[in-house]
Amino acid sequence: MRALSTAATGMAAQQLNVEVISNNIANMNTVGYKRQRAEFQDLLYQDQEQVGSQSDASGTIVPTGLQIGSGVKAGSIYRITQQGSMTQTGNPLDLAIQGAGYFQVQMPSGETAYTRAGNLSVNNSGQIVTDQGYAVLPQITIPSGATNIVISQSGLVQATLPGQAASQTLGQFQLATFVNEAGLEGLGDNLWQVSGASGPAVVGQPSVNGFGTLLQGYTEASNVDAVSEVTSLIAAQRAYEMNSKVVTTADQMLSTTVQAKS
Amino acid sequence: MDNTLYVSLSRQVTLRKELDVVANNIANADTAGFKVESLMVAADPKSPKGSPGAAPIQFNIDQGLARDFSQGALHQTGGTLDLGLRGDGFFQVQTANGVRYTRDGRFSLNAQGQIVTASGDPVLGDGGAPVSIDPTKGPPLIGADGTISQGAQTAGKIGVVRFASPSALKKDGGGYFDNVSNLGSQRAQDTKIEQGMVESSNVNPITQINRMIEVSRAYEQISNIMDGNGSLYEQAIQRLGRVN
Q1: How many CB atoms lie under 10 A from the CB of residue B77?
Q2: CB-hemisphere CA count at 13 Å for A125?
Q3: Where is B5: in which H helix or E strand?
Q4: B167/A78 touch (CB, cutoff 8 Å), yes or no
Q5: Residue A74: its pLDDT value, please?
Q6: How far apart are CA B198 and CA B37, in angstroms?
Q7: Most A CBs within 10 Å: which of B5, B17, B108, as the mutation test of the A interface?
Q8: Is some CB atom of chain B closer than 8 A to the CB atom of A209?
Q9: Does the predicted interface ipTM exceed a cut of 0.95?
Q10: Predicted structure pTM score
């Protein structure tokens, strides 16, 4: 009975949906997290009577045909790269990106990863690093004793050094954008890497040529909307129940046949 | 032989197929752009040998699959390339097997900047060529007629077509329809594109569950008729076979 396996694909799809939703809810307070969405597509159809085929010699055409579908599959998990809201932290090394762009991060393997999480700090040698301790590219070092660290909207880092009246320029932040940022491959820890789907990184200065601007003293909150996640969760649960009802019905019909008197 | 059994069996076959269709509808209740389907059954009159009158026996056959192309609800997602269609049009998609049509407007960009479907196939513009946008020029704004603009510049236009008879479309899986009829498509003037929206499936879960209950009960009923018919024979054989 095809209905049994069709309903099983529906249950598997809804299970995946719940997994994606629960991951969104779990990351509601993750800095720079972008919510994800499971996208479903119908599975192949079996033609039992082809649309447009002739039903007799005089050329009468079957108007609709007879096609029976075999359920649903997960097409992709799409990352919605909508801007998250800004949370004020007051920390001079918290940076939020308003608009397009990712910070570039030097991974221990030598590769470059990308992140929207701008909760940065300084390591023991004065380098600006992410909260995992990976250096942000281009590397910027804050000398010890520097005060009044100011990061402009366009990414210029300035600070007052001990014994000097005027503030000194210490470096310039750069951002990377992608043709298809939803195509970046997740590494965990808020880090992403280039994939064949994302296209190569385009590096540039914040606030010019379509790059986002930096906001010092803020972090970008996740763009997860609790209300819409919970409603999707309810919908997914009900859809799962409905599919399991189909399994029960198909089973009942089979047992009716099996129990028929011979 | 015994027509009651065969007529009952023909109905049981269509009922099982009907459950398959309902199961597919329910499995796809959450698939964007999915259109609800139903099985069309018909009476198939036949006259057994030597029976009086014309065609007293009506078998049950499946005649076709009807697809209800009515509008699904548009729900807001906020995605810049989520496009919902309001009206009877379809997006055109270039696949490896030729042009396909879809109402699932959850698009994204590929690495070349082309607008593509969830399966990665490019969406065609008004002129029949893939549409590309340059993401560095700012977020695209897509108007109700499909015109894509980035700032003051126009980047292209998404083509939307309609069919005089959408029932001639064949389902291809993956949300795609294939035009197998010899009738061409026309530009859909009255269909509006809504940016940031996705069209849900038009499956009504209550109707589908109801249909499922009906199917399962009808199946049982017919099974009972077959049982009854069987015991009728049993009794007949026992009585007629009795010597006195």
Answers
A1: 19
A2: 7
A3: helix B3-27
A4: no
A5: 87
A6: 20
A7: B108
A8: yes
A9: no
A10: 0.84
